[in-house]
Amino acid sequence: MKLDSMYQEIILDHYRNPHHRGLREPFDAEVHHVNPTCGDEVTVRVKIVDDTVADVSYEGEGCSISQASASVMTDLVIGRSVEDAMTLEREFLALMQSRGTVEPDEDVLEDAVAFAGVSKYPARVKCALLGWMAWKDATAQVVDGSPAGAAAVASRPLEAGSVPEQEKQA
Amino acid sequence: MAGIPEFDVELVRKDFPILDRVVHGDKPLVYLDSAATSQKPRAVLDAEREYYELHNANVHRGIHALAEEATALYEAARDKVAAFIGAPDRHEVVFTKNSSEALNLVAYAFSNAAAFGAEAERFRLGPGDEVVITEMEHHSNLVPWQMLCQRTGATLRWLGLTDDGRLDLSNLDEVINPRTKVVSFVHQSNILGTVNPVETIAARAREVGALTVADGSQSVPHLPVDVARLGVDFFAFTGHKMCGPTGIGVLWGRRELLEVMPPFLGGGEMIELVTMEESTYAPPPHRFEAGTPMIAQAVGLGTAVDYLTGLAGGAGMAAVAAHEHALTAYALERLVEVPGLRIIGPAEPVDRGGAISFLLAGKDGRPIHPHDVGQVLDEQGIAVRVGHHCARPVCLRYGVPATTRASFHLYTTTGEIDALVEGLAGVRRFFGA
Predict the structure, then answer these.
(1) Residue B309 neighbours by CB under 8 Å, 6+ apart
(2) Which residue, A33, B287, B316, B370, could crosslink B404 as a Cys pair with Cβ 3.0–4.6 Å?
(3) How far is B85 from chain A (nearest CA, A)?
């Protein structure tokens, strides 16, 4: 059944029992990203210590794909250098934009390889990217120098161009 | 309803080529997303092709044979639409690209009024004035009014919703008051299915001298509509939800208002005399139809109107409404049988149309997100809409991130509703822990 290629057991596991969920202190930046066409939302906080992702915490509302992807993302990036984590993010983005044509490297992407099937469903790609894009935004704010205050709080929709344009309907 | 000839849905379905297709390999299409857009009967597709093959020319200019034929076809579409909605005067029918443009046209007329003379007095808006909408508006009848208030300093107010998905009219006389200049509200909600008491709201607006605008995007395709009887000043709807093509919508407005209403878009066709310094404007409807219009689409819409009017031996929209009322009653009855399902909107088939939003919880009681519901239904060939349906404030009001919506039209069958109910059982099995 085709659905099973999207809803891999790994995804459903992360959805039912998400890792690192809940917003925690301390943090250096917090962002709120939304998916305007479907209403999915995620708030992500990051804590960076010595160029390492010390913590990522999040709270959100959304479908199984968006919630599971955020959970997998935290597993992958926490404890890594910012540089390595950003490389992972690019790998994952490339996988999600591949429309099912890329064979993911499990040694690199670990549980995130489960989302390869999602890349065949253009309407769901942005769900899988929501948490990652929020993390990237928050991390970039810390690394590039955040606005005044200890914690930068930003809110913006998913970057245009990062995912295929979706139709909107009445 | 008595007196309505038999509405044979199987016969109707034969008019819609797309309903024969299969999706995902071998699944017959179960199209339950007509509130987003309706499917098109062959007659509409043929009319557009025939227009381009035989009559294509620009309208209202040129004296050659094709130009005259194209103009006659375009203007005949206006006559058909006028008759369809009970417009007293064909000059009251303005073609736009969709409902959103029709609603923006009115909202911008209020902005543009500042530059016009005393005749545009009713469209002047400023600090202290109030604009009233409702909490169940589609974004297309919400955002233009927010923008208008930002431009003019007027205050935006709204009628709230009751827990069972209807307009809360308990404070109608307070919300619509002598400061109110315009009241714009939806006739039938695209997310809740609620059919609102247009005449009650319009009557209160008249008492205080406010102009009224109704958004008929979801009512004109499903109910007999008579704009004169509704008592509103403006009425907007779109062609693609009523079996017509995309790219064509309608603004109906009372003639004496359209005659003094400042234009929205400037350009060719909407003028009378132009000098380098200034211009005078054509009378309505051309005053509001700048540029080459959507000619083929208007012809297609006119054919859609003919098609709908001729259904069930000429019973037309009365037959469509009766069919959809029966479907809605059946669907509400069947859906409450689904464990874990909660309807957002009126649960009774009274003053409500065939757009049914709902939430679904799994066997463990946890909500299954509408995106996931829609995906699993799609795999079975069942097309529904998921998300906030361009009515995010409604989701906020009911504390839900999104809903799944099944919506019906003249070609929907009870068998398709059965397929939905079975499909939802499949969704619960799939996400069962």
Answers:
(1) B84, B316, B317
(2) B370
(3) 22
Rg (CA), chain A: 15
Q: Are B283 and B264 in contact (CB under 8 A)?
A: no
- How far apart are the CA of A95 and the nearest CA of chain B, in angstroms? 21
Note the pTM of the prediction, 2 decimals.
0.91
How close is the nearest chain B Cα to the Cα of A3, in Å? 7
Q: Are B403 and B357 in contact (CB under 8 A)?
A: yes
φ and ψ at residue B132, rounded to 5 degrees: -115, 130
CA distance B44 to A62: 39
Query: pLDDT of B102-148, one tens digit each?
Result: 999 999 999 999 889 899 999 999 999 999 999 999 999 999 999 99
Alpha carbon separation from A76 to A92, A109, A132, B73, B420 (Å, rounded): 11, 8, 11, 63, 39
d(CA B287, CA B272) in angstroms, rounded, equals 9
Residue B261 burial (CB count, 10 A): 29
pLDDT in tens, chain A (170 residues): 578 888 888 999 999 899 999 999 999 999 999 987 777 899 999 999 999 999 999 999 889 999 999 999 999 999 999 999 999 999 999 999 998 888 888 888 899 999 999 998 888 999 999 999 999 999 999 998 755 334 444 455 444 444 444 433 33
Question: Under an 8 A CB cutoff, do B36 and A170 touch?
Answer: yes
Amino acid at B286: H
Whole-angstrom distance, CA of residue B70 vs CA of residue B360: 51
Q: Which residue among the candidates B149, B243, B390, B395 is catalytic per the annotation?
A: B390
User: Tokens 């992972």 belong to which residue?
Assistant: A88
Q: Evaluate whether B13 touches B411 at the Cβ level (below 8 Å).
A: yes
CB-CB under 8 Å, A168 with B35: no
Closest chain B residue by Cα to residue A42: B401
Q: What share of chain A is helix, strand, coil (3-state, %, to 5)?
A: 45, 20, 35
φ/ψ (deg, to 5) at A48: -110, 130
Active site residue B395: no
DSSP B233: S
